[in-house]
Amino acid sequence: MTAPSTPSPSRTGMRFPDRPIYSGWDTPSRVEADVFEIEAEGEIPRDLRGRYYQIAPDPAFPNRTGDDIPFNGDGMLRMFTFADGHVDYRSRYVQTEKLKLERAARRSLYGAYRNPYTDHFTVAGKGRGAANTSVVFHAGKLLVLKEDARATRVDTDSLETYGEWDFDGAVTSPTFTAHPRIDPVTGEMFAFGYEAKGLASRDIAYYVMDAHGKVLHEVWFKAPYTSMIHDFVVTQDYAIFPVMPTTTDLDRLKAGGPHWQWDPSRETCLGVMPRHGTADQIRWYRGPARWAYHFFNAHNEGTTIHIDGCVSQAQAAPFLYPDPLAYDITKGVPRITRWTADYAADESNGFEEQVLQPEFTEFPLVDDRVETGRQRIGFAGARVLGDEHKGDNGIALLNSILRYDFDKQQATGQYVLPEHFTFQEPVFVPRDDDAPEGDGYLLVLANNWTTMLNDLLILDTAELAAGPVATLHLPLRLRSGIHGTWVPEHLVQAG
Ligand code: V55
Ligand code: FE
């Protein structure tokens, strides 16, 4: 007998093992659905016209290693279409090379997160991207992103997958961040890929695309060490690359080990470069080991750069510790924090840190209309301590949304969910084009742990504490999602 070209299923059927990664709100949903006219309570604002897209890792098969981490499932794209006080829902898997090969085999062929040494030999060299982290609309194209692979372009309406998008061949980095930044005035998109010359490499490729998606500027440089660079920030004049000590190691990967481990023996290094600058202009400002998945925004006053994020003293995800017992919840709490560096100062000055707010916060966001400029208002998911918590990973525990005023340096509004609910990431929609910064709606998926179904809440930022103006009741459970975006209907139609 000759070896089959496609690995055959080893047995009939399929079953997810009884592991935390496949239970609670991390139970795979796997439903590609169309729901016409979602049931609603309250008044859906008629001026909400557009699409709310959100992406979630939603494993199509149990991972072949027998376990997994929350960053590794296949991308399921969700779309809520808002028109004249009515909302429809659609979800589709992103048809990545990985998903297509695994579906053909009817089982998992790819192993551990970002470790190709754990894959089945038949997928050696094949695309590992799961397209599961964020969804971005720029220059008329809807892109699903995952930081270990190139962008994937999908249709704005059918959600059909067109395939990998390399910006007309201009992006040669095999990796592309899930967190590009957009200047709302120039329309430019700023992006980068890290581990850009192969697994565990220190190389970073930085790209600036114009408002039409054409790559205008490209810079290759090396980080001081290889780390997870999940988010970055751009101001009017600078791009900042935060290198924090969650590190990788090629020998560990070859031995089948995890891609990332928290390593507090290293410093945090903020790489600052003029936003249209060159590699020789990068300066590294150092400080103590810190962790941040996400930043609100950054802005500069002259050469003084303020970076606002949700910063913890140690890695916030327990599953990224070499020894899970070393995880200390008190150090893993992300708090609204400002880092300040002066590009005119000597690198040896490092950066300064100011913790602005004591509460546990994640999924920070600003009004897109002020990104790269000075923001006054930020919103973030928060966790009200003392309440009932579900699951053991930080982002699954959010049960509140707060508004933070960066001018007053205080929280100026908060909505706390009833018990037995947690939140996914909120997105902000301005009330209209001329609305003041932060005035509008927050859309947020609420997980109802009693019914095990999802609601989509519409909150009015003018009356945040009053709770939702409308609640959409989905007949589905949507596995814990990651990032989303709002696209106004006229832009969807133009794209
Ligand atoms: C994150 C998520 C990822 C990833 C790296 O939320 C970091 C943080 C869903 O995938 O690959
Ligand atoms: Fe993220």
Task: Describe the SSE topology.
Elements: E1 34-35, E2 39-42, E3 50-57, E4 75-83, E5 86-93, H1 97-105, E6 134-138, E7 141-145, E8 151-154, E9 161-165, E10 181-182, E11 189-194, E12 203-209, E13 215-222, E14 233-234, E15 238-243, E16 246-247, H2 250-254, E17 261-262, E18 268-274, E19 283-287, E20 291-301, E21 304-312, E22 335-342, E23 352-355, E24 360-366, E25 377-383, E26 400-405, E27 410-416, E28 421-423, E29 427-430, E30 440-448, E31 453-460, E32 470-473, E33 484-488, H3 489-494
Antiparallel strand pairs: 1-5, 2-32, 3-4, 3-33, 4-5, 6-7, 7-8, 8-9, 10-11, 11-12, 12-13, 14-15, 15-18, 16-17, 18-19, 20-21, 21-22, 22-23, 24-25, 25-26, 26-27, 28-30, 29-30, 30-31, 31-32
The chain binds 4-hydroxy-3-methoxybenzaldehyde and fe (iii) ion (FE).
Polypeptide structure, described:
This protein has helices at 97-105, 250-254, 489-494; strands at 34-35, 39-42, 50-57, 75-83, 86-93, 134-138, 141-145, 151-154, 161-165, 181-182, 189-194, 203-209, 215-222, 233-234, 238-243, 246-247, 261-262, 268-274, 283-287, 291-301, 304-312, 335-342, 352-355, 360-366, 377-383, 400-405, 410-416, 421-423, 427-430, 440-448, 453-460, 470-473, 484-488. It is globular. The longest helix is centred in the N-terminal third of the chain and has 9 residues, at 97-105. The chain has a single domain (20-494), classed as Methylamine Dehydrogenase, Chain H (7 Propeller), CATH 2.130.10. Strands 2, 28, 29, 30, 31 and 32 form a six-stranded antiparallel beta sheet that branches. Residues 387-395 have low confidence and may be disordered. With 495 residues, it is mainly beta. The chain contains three helices and 33 strands. It binds 4-hydroxy-3-methoxybenzaldehyde and fe (iii) ion (FE). Residues 178-179, 230-231, 293-294, 483 line the site of fe (iii) ion.
